[in-house]
Specification:
- The chain has 7 helices and 12 strands.
- It is of the alpha/beta class.
- The chain folds into 2 domains: 60 residues, no CATH class; 170 residues, Putative cyclase (Glucose Oxidase, domain 1), CATH 3.50.30.
- A 7-stranded mixed β-barrel has the order 4-10-9-7-5-11-12. The chain has a two-stranded antiparallel ribbon with strand order 2-3. Strands 6-8 form a two-stranded parallel sheet.
- The longest helix is centred in the middle third of the chain and has 11 residues.
- It starts with 15 loop residues before the first helix and ends with a strand.
C-alpha cells in the first residue's frame, strides 16, 4: 500500500501511462492439482497502483535477435501488485522484508467472506461480528494464522478507476481483536489496501505493523480457497531494507 500523501512519487513513473494501456492478464488458477492454488496476480504495467502513475514500468534491454539473449528492465515500487507490507512500512524501527523469518511466511490461512455486503456497500470493513460468525460456522481461527478478506474486488482489477475508487478492508477493531485473541501472524486482502478506501489515518496498518505483523495486498483467487484448513506460502522478494515487496503467494490444502 502506498499512502496518498506520498503521491509525489507518481512523477517518477510518468512513463507508466503509455504502458498501462496493455491488457491486464487475469490470475491463473493452478490446473490439474486440486488443493493447490495461486493467489498471485501477474504484474505488468497495467496493474493498478494505489495512486495513478505508480504503476510498474518496463523496457526491453536486450533481445535474442540483436544480442543473443532476452532481458528487461523493470521500475517498480515495493507496494504494487500482489505484495507484502512488512512491519517497517508503517512502524518506525519495524522489521524489514529480509527480517521476516521463513517460518512466518508459511502459515495457516482462513478466508472471511464479505463479498455480498461489499457489493452493496463498497467501503465496508471486516468487523469483530464477522469474525465471530466465521468461527461459529467454520471453527476457531488458528493462532499464528493469516486472516484473508474476500470481497470479490478482483472482478474490478481490469478497470483501474473502479478498482481504486472504492474498496473494503479490515476494521481496526477486528484487527486488534485478532491480534489480542488469536495471535495472528498476518492480514491479507483482495484489494489495494488493508484499510478501506476512505481511510486517511490507516489505523489498521498502524495497529498491525506496530504488533510486528505483516500484511498482504492484492490477493487473487480467494473465491476458490477453502474458508478454513488451507496453508499459504508467501514467497516474498527479499529486498534489502525493504518496506515490503512483491510476493508469489501459493495455497495448498
Amino acid at each position: 500500500m502506498c499512502t496518498r500523501h506520498l503521491s509525489r512519487r507518481a512523477a517518477l513513473f510518468g512513463g507508466a501511462g503509455i504502458a498501462a494501456s496493455l491488457a491486464l492478464t487475469a490470475p491463473a488458477v493452478a490446473a490439474g492439482r486440486p488443493g493447490l492454488l495461486d493467489l498471485t496476480y501477474r504484474l505488468g504495467p497495467a496493474f493498478p497502483g494505489f495512486e495513478p502513475g505508480e504503476e510498474a514500468v518496463r523496457r526491453t534491454v536486450t533481445t535474442i535477435e540483436a544480442d543473443g539473449y532476452f532481458m528487461q528492465e523493470w521500475r517498480v515500487l515495493e507496494h504494487i501488485g500482489t505484495h507484502v507490507d512488512a512491519p517497517a512500512h508503517f512502524t518506525a524501527g519495524g522489521r524489514t522484508s529480509t527480517e521476516l523469518r521463513p517460518s512466518e511466511l508459511y502459515l495457516p490461512a482462513v478466508v472471511i467472506d464479505i463479498a455480498a455486503r461489499a457489493a452493496r456497500s463498497p467501503d465496508t470493513v471486516v468487523t469483530v461480528d464477522d469474525l465471530r460468525a466465521f468461527e461459529r460456522r467454520y471453527g476457531r481461527i488458528p493462532d499464528e494464522a493469516a486472516v484473508l478478506m474476500y470481497s470479490g474486488w478482483g472482478a474490478k482489477v481490469g478497470d483501474a478507476a473502479a478498482y481504486r475508487a472504492h474498496f473494503p478492508g479490515f476494521g481496526v477493531d477486528a484487527c486488534r481483536w485478532l491480534l489480542r485473541e488469536r495471535k495472528i501472524r498476518a492480514l491479507g486482502v483482495d484489494t489495494l489496501s488493508l484499510d478501506p478506501a476512505p481511510s486517511t489515518a490507516f489505523e489498521t496498518h498502524h495497529a498491525l505493523t506496530a504488533a510486528d505483523r505483516y500484511g498482504i495486498e492484492n490477493l487473487a483467487n480467494l473465491a476458490h480457497l477453502p474458508r478454513q484448513g488451507a496453508k499459504i506460502f508467501v514467497g516474498l522478494i527479499p529486498y534489502e531494507g525493504g518496506s515490503g515487496g512483491q510476493a508469489r503467494v501459493l495455497a495448498n490444502w
